[in-house]
Design brief:
single chain; alpha/beta; Aldehyde Dehydrogenase, Chain A, domain 2; 14 helices; globular; binds ligand TXE
């Protein structure tokens, strides 16, 4: 497909043409794109600003109907979207189609949010007054997205922004612009007025920075280091910020866990979607009594996983999404080994029928919490086991890491699960299920440095995507 930049309702070519290649088959070009010029970026931001008064005043039923239609089209086109996603990012087709449906549900949910928007009415301490609290749009939203969920993350940001009456300039990752371009086409087809949604392709600098400067709010998902740069940039203009950043998520496995379930959810969290989920499991904190049986079973299940071309029907784990990430993964493995982590399985590239970025599911054992490999995000199909004595030590180790995104526990004990839920410092806690696999109707996010600002999704999305207005009304009665 030939993607472009969507500026004020028109698709425009830019400068610096670039291609994306299929990580399952590096010889296959998936898309040819060009980056928005500096003046295109400025025009996109100006178009979003110009479109704001009419869109924020748009009839609520019309706005809800439009968002619902976008969701409907995403469902209808889920196989096309999912296939493009699999070719450009490397998720298996089932994962790609599933992500397209998830994106549709975000639009459907936010269509409902338009109708459910509420205000508050207060009595006043002053006779003849009442006080009304309403929410109104933030303004122009800069949405900056990473490569690991090429349709879901743009969808949940754009759907929430539009639902609350904002206009948008989206800058996706250069590794996966295809789904963002498709989303732009679908929004246009659904009848979104020109300028309400704009898409600019380009690098973090200058393009990402430029849209932050021009926006009233920036919603960002990506690496923690990039998040720091975004925050500094936004501080210059006091732009409202919401960020979802890195993770080093732990799954605690207690002696009383169902062993089959624990192995299943550990493997799912660590290796599915090639370990490229911000909520994926990178640390397995396992109590002594179950440790050996758990490790053996998990290692065997890793060896059985089918790694291969994302579109092959038998494939369970697709390729690493891009070459820089694969190189980062391999360097991670080397450094972990050098500091004494014992490689139980994986760690290497795999040869398949096509020349792709295939990496074996990787498991380290015999590690300690303070090791570099347990303190640093890998973002690949790599996880390590830390042996502990009991629940208290497990909770301590789970919290003994700078990241705070998600954390899970496998246990048959209700009180252990409750204790973990209460004392975990993660933004999301999961009991007897993988640390990844989040739903669209509840808050998503974490405290710093895994997140910053209000949560995304669910009812919580109104905190970032709208502003509060408090009105004191002296009606004299
Ligand atoms: O993220 P980046 P990338 C982590 C993961 C991965 C690493 C790099 O560790 O290896 O980040 O992945 C834009 N101002 N996560 O390259 O670099 C950039 O163009 C404004 C974890 O995808 O953070 C892209 O659109 N924007 C994460 C977006 O920011 C800037 C998910 C993300 O880029 C910018 C993905 C700047 N100065 C990656 N620099 C998670 N945990 O969810 C870059 N960008």
């Amino acid at each position: 497909m030939n993607g472009q930049n969507l500026i004020d309702g028109e698709w425009r070519s830019g400068i610096d043409a670039f291609e994306t290649v299929n990580p399952s088959d590096l010889g296959e070009v998936v898309g040819r794109y060009s980056k928005a010029t500096e003046s295109d970026v400025a025009r996109a931001c100006a178009a979003a600003r110009d479109a704001l008064p009419a869109w924020s005043a748009c009839n609520m039923q019309a706005r809800a109907d439009l968002l619902r239609k976008v969701g409907d089209v995403l469902v209808e086109r889920r196989v096309a979207v999912g296939t493009l996603l699999s070719r450009e990012e490397g998720k298996t087709l089932a994962e790609g189609v599933g992500e397209a449906v998830y994106a549709a549900r975000c639009f459907h949910f936010q269509a409902g949010e338009v109708i459910r928007a509420q205000g508050q009415w207060y009595d006043s301490g002053r006779d003849g007054f009442n006080i009304v609290v309403t929410r109104e749009p933030v303004g122009v939203i800069a949405a900056i997205t990473p490569w690991n969920f090429p349709i879901a993350i743009p969808a949940w940001k754009v759907a929430a922004a539009l639902a609350h009456g904002n206009t948008v300039v989206l800058k996706p990752s250069n590794f996966v612009p295809g789904c963002a371009v498709l989303l732009g086409e679908i929004l246009q087809q659904a009848g979104l007025p020109r300028g309400v949604f704009n898409l600019v392709l380009g690098d973090g600098e200058p393009t990402g920075g430029a849209i932050i400067d021009a926006a009233d709010g920036v919603t960002f998902t990506g690496g923690t280091e990039t998040g720091r740069l975004v925050l500094r940039r936004a501080a210059e203009t006091m732009t409202k910020v919401q960020m979802e950043l890195g993770g080093k998520n732990a799954l605690v496995v207690l002696d009383d866990a169902d062993l089959d379930l624990a192995v299943d959810i550990a493997g799912n969290g660590a290796w599915r979607q090639t370990g490229q989920r911000c909520t994926g499991t990178e640390r397995l904190i396992v109590t002594r009594g179950i440790h050996d049986a758990f490790v053996e079973r998990l290692m065997n299940s890793a060896k059985r996983l089918q790694v291969g071309h994302a579109l092959d029907p038998d494939t369970e784990i697709g390729p690493v999404a891009n070459r820089p990430q694969l190189e980062k993964n391999l360097a991670f493995v080397e450094r972990a080994r050098a500091e004494g982590a014992e490689l139980a399985t994986g760690g290497e590239c795999l040869k398949r029928r096509t020349k792709g970025l295939f990496m074996a599911p990787t498991l380290f054992v015999g590690t300690r919490s303070e090791m570099w490999c347990n303190q640093t995000e890998a973002f690949g199909p790599i996880c390590s086991v830390i042996k502990v004595d009991d629940l208290d030590e497990a909770i301590h180790v789970a919290n003994d890491c700078p990241y705070r995104l998600s954390a899970g526990i496998a246990t048959a004990g209700l009180s252990s699960a409750e204790r973990f839920r209460r004392y975990s410092r993660a933004g999301m806690v999961i009991v007897n299920a993988p640390t990844a696999g989040l739903e669209y109707h509840v808050p998503l996010g974490a405290r710093a440095p895994s997140g910053f600002g209000p949560r995304e999704n669910g009812l919580a999305s109104s905190e970032f995507f709208s502003e509060t207005k408090t009105a004191y009304i002296n009606h004299g009665e």
